[in-house]
Queue: 4 jobs
Job 1
Amino acid sequence: MESPKTKGTRKSAYLQALTNELLTPQHQPLDVYLRPFVAPASGKGSLLDQLLALPGLDGRSGGAEIDVAYAADDAQAQQGYLDMKRSRGELGPH
């Protein structure tokens, strides 16, 4: 397994950590997920240059992972979104 410091984050893993953060923020799953990626600032160049140099932020270093989680016509995905909204009280019962 590659070290997190030499590899960028993976979209699916990040989104899972983000979802877990929304569901159980007291466990801080997003902090736990991102902790291995934290490094001191280099001090070279502007803050913008440093941010753009981070792996994954340029939109080109995502590898072969698909950039869209679900197709717009994916019935299972749509049901998942509706279930999540319902669990948050954003929708009425079935």
Job 2
Amino acid sequence: MILVIKMDELKTPALDKMQAIMDESQIIGEFIEWLKESSKYGVVEEVDYIEEVDVSGLCEPPEYEYRKTTEWRPIRKSTEQILAEYFEIDLNAVDVERSELLKLALHKPTK
């Protein structure tokens, strides 16, 4: 039996978006990789957190104050994750769409 599947019936908005921005994201991705590998520069992200500070001095019991602190820390995201965030692409949706395309290519119907 031959299974005929119309590829145009399969909707892949996340993959379509990735395809549309491929040239631009390739250039940006190469730049991000260069920054990560460079010894002069680094890729960092702004991290906010609440810090507990003892403001009591020698008084008992101690008094604490909470202050918002901002630090710059090395980014722990892959280049793909950074690009997906920038271009607003859902990587989970991309994985689902790729799986669906693979199932179609292998002629295995989806449950």
Job 3
Amino acid sequence: MSDDKRFSVGDIVSLNSGGHSMTVLSANKQSVSCVWSVRGDIKKGSFPAHALKETEADANQSLAALIKESMKLDESTKLQSLDRENAK
């Protein structure tokens, strides 16, 4: 890629300095919004395009995997709430 980096939704990227693989949610010429997972926690952030590079896809970091993990966490939270209510 040239200095004028262009990323597309679904691209797998990482910071030039290293770190987690992230999935691009949206991008323009200057800013890229990404999502990634850290120990099951879904994180989101925006980064300057020049601070990112395309990287190899990691099956554990794909958008589908992140969404699935998020749904499991939501379900787990709901079940924990129900258990607390039933314990009363």
Job 4
Amino acid sequence: MISIGDAPHEREALFRVTRGQDVLESARRRKCRTKAIKFMIQPSVEQLVHELEMLQKCLHQVVVHDDDLDLQFDENTLPNAAEKNMENIPDNGLNTAGKSVCA
């Protein structure tokens, strides 16, 4: 299951719905992979364009990633912050808590 959006409740609902699914599934079914991509709330137009461009570049990797993911865009990973402090921006543009998904 993949959730893409800016509202925190979308992300929270995804994790609530999928929590415990592995325990409930039979041995014949595959593990449910929970993947959330959280956009910024009220980004600038430039930030929204950047979020969508990054999503377009990374969507295939997100889909085929064989584990859970919780990715979040924040002001430290988007263009306005880049002008202020380039060294804090990860190469992939996503805050993944140390997990690299997009090359």
